[in-house]
Amino acid sequence: MATMESKLDRLIDTLNTCLPTLLNQTNGKEKSPPPPADPGYLSGNFPTILDREKLTFDTLPPPRVLESLIDIFFLRAHNQPYSFFNENKFRRKLAENLLPDYLIFAVLVSALRFSNDPYFNNVRHEAATGYARESWKHLVSTWFAPESDPNIHICQAITLLSIFDYTAGRRHPAWLKIGLSIRIAQDLRLMVEPDVGLSFIEQEEHRRTFWSIYVLDRLCSCGRNRPASIIDAHCRVRLPCGEENFRNGEWEETLTLEQAFGLGRNPAANVGPLALVVLTASILGRCAQHSIHEQSREESRLPPWDSKSEFAAIYSILLQLETQFEMGSRINKVLAEDCLRDGAIDMQIAGPFVFSHALFHTAQCLLHHPFLLYNQLRARGVKAPASFLGRAFQTCRENANSISTLINDTNNAGYPVYFSFMGYCAVVTTGIHMLYLRDDDIALRQQAFSCFQSGMAYLEEFSKYWKNGKTMLAILQVAANQAALCNSLMSNSSSLEEVDSQEIENMWAALDYSCMSQITELNVPFANASPSYPSWSSIFGMRGINMTPSTDANNFDPMNFFPISNSISNGESQDNPISFGDIASMHSFFGTTPLNF
Predict the structure, then answer these.
(1) Largest CB tally within 10 Å, which of 28, 63, 86, 95?
(2) What is the pLDDT of residue 380?
(3) What distance in Å separates the CA atoms of residue 295 and residue 289, rounded to the nearest whole number?
């Protein structure tokens, strides 16, 4: 018996030594078959010979794990909000071994954040990082190195990787990847109608890939010095069709972007939920260009209350969208009437509806935001009429309330939404509620407090899926300690000239998507599970997201609640590197060596 145990020990040592080499033998090839499923995994007993801390995740997972992640991708990521594939076609090509590894790895990266598969026990982030690195290495070796012509799979994979980078705090390589995917899409002529010789499904995949890149371009433009790159006039491809027609491969005539914005003349035109995401992302990008980015055009010199101003033009389009698509209505009605399939919410259909409503209200918030309006008025050297500011602030607050209600309604409907950009929407919204926490109107103060609670609780849950969620929470913590600045913004005679420049920068951070997506190592209660700082859920006793106040808003001082050190609010980064103006260093972009993710 002792001799047999000795031989088994030597066998285990041999397997531990040789297995990494065997797994790495397929590196460098464009298509490598998945490794065989581990018998221990299939039986439910996980092998003890694999030291998970040493796994590099440089090969595809076992078939059962791979299938599980593909299921999660189409359940939690597809159409939420980006859409690249026809599900049946993708699964068929995967089964026939016709998809390149770099695309499969990129899809797995997008699905992993929502996976609870025990195969990735406690190493989910490491697995996603490894798969992203491997996808990029395959892209470099199969496309950059031989200088071969691009194809739509390359465009899709790079776009998926850019989303992973941006939300993980690697905004610089993400920004370059987004630009690369845009150029590849243009090289493939995805911005014009596809070849009629392609099947309808292939044509629609071309359209959806382009519009997904377009939406990503517009969402990222909500950061300073991150202007949109795609020009609307160049987008001559038709908008995405309805989801069910796409699934069934049935042709559907849709509009172009230009035609869709002229819907006042064609109220019967069919605009599907994904097409509505494109429309609202387009107007959000225009809001960001007007309110966040510096303007040099002559019309930007006009004050916002001028009927010929860019402000008035954008607001007119928003009113048109609200009227045409009932954007002001509660999402419950849409979910019940348009998204139920076999008694359950179809997440691939519901996702675009929810997201388009969120983008619409976020655009209204940016256009009418007190801080952004203040900066515009100061740049023009004009004083706003009190009546204009009153209506603008009210519109801003009402749309912030609408986003809070949207998040609460979807949660109560059993469909909690954790799309990557919803974190930005929640930060903007919660920041607006923060401005009313000391309002003289008791009813407004209580409502703001209730929405503020739910916003922070939502972001705490959001941060479990998206790494930049912790940065978002820290930004709001810092901003909420700036009582003087908040009070100044809500005054018609506001003047921020004497406010500390770092406080101004902190307020900018609560509106700048780029700041929310930078690399930080936070030493704040939400980033570290310190027993000294309970979570928002435990503070407010919330079941999921609960809009009902559980603390007396009249006696609660939110400005003095957060235990934030001075080093954070002053932007010092030695111990708490959350200086929002910092620019993180960028790692190798085109190198074939493993990137420092």
Answers:
(1) 86
(2) 80
(3) 8
Banded pLDDT at 312 (limits 50, 70, 90):
very high
C-alpha pair distances (Å), 581 with each of 94, 426, 515, 597: 44, 21, 8, 21
Which residues, 6+ apart, have CB-to-CB distance to 88 below 8 Å?
247
Q: Is the CB of residue 518 less than 8 Å from the CB of residue 169? A: yes
CA 116 – CA 121 distance, rounded (Å): 8
Q: At CA 411, angle to CA 410 and CA 413, rounded to 5?
A: 65
Closest of 155, 64, 65, 69 to residue 110, by C-alpha: 69
Phi-psi region of 149 (alpha: psi -120 to 50; beta: other; left: phi over 0): beta
13 burial (CB, 10 Å; 0-12 / 13-18 / 19+) is: exposed
List % helix, strand, coil for the chain (3-state, nearest 5). Answer: 60, 0, 40
Omega before 577 within 30 of 0, i.e. cis: no
Strand partners, 345: 340
What's the whole-model pTM score? 0.82
The per-residue pLDDT for range 385-423, each reduced to its tens digit, is 999 999 999 999 999 999 999 999 999 988 899 999 999
Other C-beta atoms lying within 10 Å of the C-beta of residue 546? 18
Cα 132 versus chain centre, distance: 17
Which residues make Cβ contacts (< 8 Å) with residue 136, sequence separation at least 6? 102, 161, 595
Tokens 């005679």 identify what position? 493
Closest CA to 161 of 136, 137, 140, 141: 136
Q: Give the residue among 214, 112, 117 at the shortest CA–CA distance from 167.
A: 112
The residues facing 170 across adjacent strands are: 518
Whole-number Å distance between alpha carbons of 397 and 460: 22
Residue 85: partners with Cβ closer than 8 Å, 6 or more residues away: 78, 156, 205
User: What does the alpha-carbon distance between residue 593 and residue 597 come to, in Å, rounded to a whole number?
Assistant: 12
Residue closest to 478 by CA, chosen among 387, 576, 562, 595 = 562
Buried b or exposed e, range 338-353, using 16+ CB within 10 angstroms: ebeeeeebbbbbbbbb
What distance in Å separates the CA atoms of residue 479 and residue 476, rounded to the nearest whole number?
5
For tokens 């929470």, what's the residue? 473
Q: What is the structure's pLDDT at 37?
A: 40
Concatenated DSSP letters for 120-177? GTT-HHHHHHHHHHHHHHHHIIIIITTTPPP-HHHHHHHHHHHHHHHHTTBHHHHHHH
Instruction: Please give the pLDDT value at position 587.
Output: 37
Are 66 and 34 in contact, with CB atoms under 8 Å apart? yes
Residue of 396, 375, 591, 410 lying closest to 497 (CA atoms): 375
Residue 562 has pLDDT above 70, yes or no: no
DSSP code at position 266: -
DSSP string, 498-543: TS-HHHHHHHHHTT-TTGGGB-----STTTS--TTS--HHHHHT-S
| Averaged pLDDT of the chain | 79
Q: Is the pLDDT at 9 greater than 90, yes or no?
A: no
Residue in the structure block whose two tokens are 């038709």: 238
